[in-house]
Write a structure and sequence with these properties.
globular, 10 strands, 26% strand, Rossmann fold, binds S-adenosylmethionine, 231 residues, single chain, alpha/beta, 8-stranded mixed beta sheet, two-stranded antiparallel ribbon
Length: 231
């Protein structure tokens, strides 16, 4: 395989580090994970540009900066158990797996989940579990999680995900009334039934489709998940 480590270092320096992400573990993980393995055929020339790229099923692999930003918001630590909703290409799960103890990642499209699983196996990343399903319901048998990162935008923060956070756990999720006009929220579980919320600004993600997300048919009736006490 072509050695693209120089292009990768450049991407991390220019698009991630210089834009304000200074966590050494994130930068090191992004220098390690070969992003070119995660892009669709035909896009191998572009893995180190700072933009989202198309993958199968009309979905996208998120831009490197936003992957780094969400991981920084989630404050990942070495011993953490992390849930990702929206495996997509598998790139973000791969990066997180270089930082934490175990990553559980759910994707609603079986084909994407299977391709990601094969990529993890080929790379020898054996601390990632992949499941096909509706991630808005979380992964109850692996809960509680230290962090949950949702890579698609929903109408609210799903209750199931909030409840699967450990106390002190962080949920990072794009939320908005329009599927492509969202705010990036961090919901922290501060106690058994208490949560705090911070807003990290506007973002654009593909819609989170599921029981506690948007309906599949495109109708945008509101299904509000978040109803816990907030400070
Ligand atoms: N993290 C991915 C990566 O690094 O390539 C990018 C994810 S892409 C922006 C969002 C993904 O969320 C899509 O693959 C989409 O199919 C998936 N998705 C949307 N709703 C979902 C749900 N309820 N459960 C699981 N996956 C979902």
């Amino acid at each position: 395989m072509l050695d693209l480590s120089h292009a990768r270092d450049r991407m991390v320096d220019i698009h991630v580090s210089r834009r304000g992400i200074h966590d050494r573990n994130i930068l090191e993980a992004m220098r390690q994970v070969p992003r070119e393995v995660f892009v669709a055929p035909g896009y191998e020339e572009f893995p180190y540009e700072d933009g989202p790229l198309p993958i199968a099923e009309g979905q996208t692999i998120s831009q490197p900066y936003i992957v780094a930003f969400m991981i920084e918001m989630a404050e990942l630590g070495a011993g953490d158990q992390v849930l990702e909703v929206g495996t997509g290409s598998g790139y973000a799960a791969a990066v997180m797996s270089r930082i934490v103890e175990r990553v559980y990642t759910i994707e609603r499209h079986a084909g994407l989940a299977e391709t990601a699983r094969q990529r993890f196996e080929e790379l020898g990343y054996d601390n990632i579990e992949v499941r096909t399903g509706d991630g808005t319901k979380g992964w109850p048998d692996a809960a509680p999680f230290d962090a949950i990162v949702v890579a698609a935008g929903g109408p609210g923060a799903p209750l199931a995900l909030q409840e699967q956070l450990d106390v002190g756990g962080r949920l990072v999720i794009p939320v908005g009334d329009e599927p492509h006009d969202q705010r990036l929220l961090k919901v922290t579980r501060t106690g058994a039934a208490t949560y705090s919320e911070e807003d990290f600004g506007g973002v654009r993600f593909v819609p989170l489709i599921g029981e506690q997300g948007w309906p599949e048919n495109g109708s945008r009736s509101k299904i509000r998940g978040a109803s816990h006490d907030r400070s």
